């Protein structure tokens, strides 16, 4: 009790959580306060965030922290990229935000590139074209004459939205804004040209703030309801991947990372965006990072496939735990490699059927049991990482020499080993809660407890011990 702590609210594809971080003598300790499901809700024609329920879950986490008697110095929020809510002229949320796995963006890139020149667009925004990105979500709303878009006064990315309802302050944090594909990569501000050419309402796009900025304080009613009193809400690398990358336990450049969760984000940290044609063709993205850095990375479908399989097996009453299935998969033998980024695996009704059908249609050996299915998914991921690193190395002055895997997926020992084998370089696994760590330490930076990103990472190095995997073949 009476501990000085920061609270991170992290909304990931697997779950939402409120985590407390306690920083003392250059070392960070975490305590999970509250974990809750982050379900996507299918209603009528769309797939939505369950925003009001998640806001309540977050407040429950805040209340629990207050009940523990902690002295809360800040609250920071991060979520996955690209999704947003729209606010009307009264400051109210217009409808539940739509989740990026919604079908509304199908075919949108082709529509957008009737209007924009694709190569120039990359040279401006530096973002890998993915149909899920905010730009394509907005363009689909425009083409469908969506009434929400007509009513909207401001667009808030999900972390901006959570923060807005905590503080009443509405602005756009830089890292998450970069996932919109609507920022000028060099200026690090809205690309007015892109917005105008697409005919999107210019008033939607607010002030861009940098991670490490105080957004505001808790609104009085929320301060009272949670029992927290007046607490600062701080802009962190509010794109979960930006927070995770800030917490890579390494200080020697190039910092090569694989943020492994629902998605696999593989890349390096650089000082300036790489906007070359080679980078574009290799589908690398330049997302905004903490401390003015750029995350030069590829978005790869990650453990989503395994997550879905596990939940399907559970729904059939065949409860499976990672601790059982991964050792079984380690023993399994199957040669099949599937292209994890194929649209077949984006959001199928049934993942196991999608996988089996894919193998059948492409005359690949069909996995016969759960262990073989899991093995197939993991070796397909490792194979994809190898291709990504090869492309990455071609964009860099010298090849990467080690890879830091962070996030929940870094607990997957088989995947870590297969990755080391494929890449032929050492792999360092951990921390699991990199996102929460980056979130919390960026708050400490805003409060002047940490000088810069380098010092932040030294704290991470003092606080965690990654597992090393050497290549075996
Ligand atoms: P996200 O924020 O995208 O939900 P997380 O960083 O929480 O991602 O990671 C979730 C992933 O971590 C799951 O998809 C799962 O594959 C992996 N994971 C979780 N627990 C374990 C475990 N005990 N062993 C291996 N992998 C695990
Ligand atoms: C990972 C992530 C990733 C992408 C995707 C939508 O959780 O944020 O970086 O932006 O989700």
TrEMBL record:
<feature type="domain" description="Carbohydrate kinase FGGY C-terminal">
    <location>
        <begin position="257"/>
        <end position="446"/>
    </location>
</feature>
<dbReference type="InterPro" id="IPR043129">
    <property type="entry name" value="ATPase_NBD"/>
</dbReference>
<dbReference type="InterPro" id="IPR018485">
    <property type="entry name" value="FGGY_C"/>
</dbReference>
<comment type="similarity">
    <text>Belongs to the FGGY kinase family.</text>
</comment>
<dbReference type="GO" id="GO:0004370">
    <property type="term" value="F:glycerol kinase activity"/>
</dbReference>
<dbReference type="GO" id="GO:0006071">
    <property type="term" value="P:glycerol metabolic process"/>
</dbReference>
<protein>
    <submittedName>
        <fullName>Rhamnulokinase</fullName>
    </submittedName>
</protein>
<dbReference type="Pfam" id="PF00370">
    <property type="entry name" value="FGGY_N"/>
</dbReference>
<keyword id="KW-0547">Nucleotide-binding</keyword>
<feature type="domain" description="Carbohydrate kinase FGGY N-terminal">
    <location>
        <begin position="6"/>
        <end position="245"/>
    </location>
</feature>
<dbReference type="InterPro" id="IPR018484">
    <property type="entry name" value="FGGY_N"/>
</dbReference>
<dbReference type="InterPro" id="IPR013449">
    <property type="entry name" value="Rhamnulokinase"/>
</dbReference>
<keyword id="KW-0684">Rhamnose metabolism</keyword>
<dbReference type="GO" id="GO:0008993">
    <property type="term" value="F:rhamnulokinase activity"/>
</dbReference>
<dbReference type="Pfam" id="PF02782">
    <property type="entry name" value="FGGY_C"/>
</dbReference>
<dbReference type="GO" id="GO:0005829">
    <property type="term" value="C:cytosol"/>
</dbReference>
<dbReference type="GO" id="GO:0005524">
    <property type="term" value="F:ATP binding"/>
</dbReference>
<keyword id="KW-0067">ATP-binding</keyword>
<keyword id="KW-0418">Kinase</keyword>
<keyword id="KW-0808">Transferase</keyword>
<dbReference type="InterPro" id="IPR000577">
    <property type="entry name" value="Carb_kinase_FGGY"/>
</dbReference>
<dbReference type="GO" id="GO:0019301">
    <property type="term" value="P:rhamnose catabolic process"/>
</dbReference>
<keyword id="KW-1015">Disulfide bond</keyword>
């Amino acid at each position: 009790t009476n501990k000085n702590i920061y609270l991170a609210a992290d909304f990931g594809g697997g779950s939402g959580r409120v985590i407390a971080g306690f920083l003392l003598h250059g070392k960070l300790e975490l305590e999970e306060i509250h974990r809750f499901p982050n379900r996507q809700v299918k209603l009528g024609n769309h797939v939505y965030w369950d925003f009001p329920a998640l806001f309540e879950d977050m407040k429950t986490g805040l209340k629990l922290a207050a009940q523990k008697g902690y002295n809360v110095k800040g609250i920071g929020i991060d979520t996955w990229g690209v999704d947003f809510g729209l606010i009307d002229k009264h400051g109210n949320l217009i409808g539940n935000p739509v989740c990026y796995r919604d079908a509304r963006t199908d075919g949108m890139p082709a529509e957008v590139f009737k209007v924009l020149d694709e190569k120039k667009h990359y040279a401006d925004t530096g973002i890998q074209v993915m149909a899920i990105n905010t730009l394509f979500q907005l363009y689909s709303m425009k083409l469908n004459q969506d009434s929400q878009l007509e009513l909207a006064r401001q667009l808030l990315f999900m972390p901006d939205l959570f923060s807005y309802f905590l503080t009443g302050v509405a602005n756009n944090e830089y890292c998450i804004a970069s996932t919109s594909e609507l920022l000028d990569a060099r200026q690090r501000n809205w690309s007015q040209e892109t917005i105008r050419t697409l005919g999107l309402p210019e008033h939607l796009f607010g002030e861009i703030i940098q991670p490490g900025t105080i957004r505001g304080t808790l609104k009085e009613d929320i301060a009272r309801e949670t029992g927290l009193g007046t607490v600062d809400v701080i802009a962190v690398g509010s794109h979960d991947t930006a927070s995770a990358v800030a917490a890579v336990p390494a200080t020697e450049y190039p910092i090569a990372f694989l943020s492994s969760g629902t998605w696999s984000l593989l890349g390096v940290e650089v000082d300036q965006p790489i906007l070359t044609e080679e980078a574009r063709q290799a589908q690398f993205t330049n997302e905004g990072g903490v401390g003015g850095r750029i995350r030069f990375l590829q978005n790869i479908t990650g453990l989503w496939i395994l997550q879905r399989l596990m939940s399907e097996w559970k729904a059939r009453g065949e409860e499976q735990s990672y601790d059982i299935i991964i050792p079984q998969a380690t023993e399994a033998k199957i040669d099949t490699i599937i292209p994890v980024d194929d649209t077949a695996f984006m959001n199928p009704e049934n993942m196991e059927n999608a996988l089996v059908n894919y193998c059948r249609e492409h005359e690949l050996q069909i996995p016969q049991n759960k262990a073989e299915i899991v093995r197939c998914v993991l070796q397909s991921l490792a194979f994809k990482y190898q291709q990504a690193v090869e492309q990455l190395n071609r964009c860099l002055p010298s090849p990467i020499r080690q890879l830091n895997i962070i996030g929940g997926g870094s607990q997957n020992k088989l995947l870590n080993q297969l990755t080391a084998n494929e890449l032929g370089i050492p792999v360092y696994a951990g921390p699991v809660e990199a996102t929460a760590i980056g979130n919390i330490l960026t708050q400490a930076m805003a409060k002047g407890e940490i000088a810069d990103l380098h010092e932040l990472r030294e704290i991470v190095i003092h606080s965690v011990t990654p597992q090393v995997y050497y290549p075996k073949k």
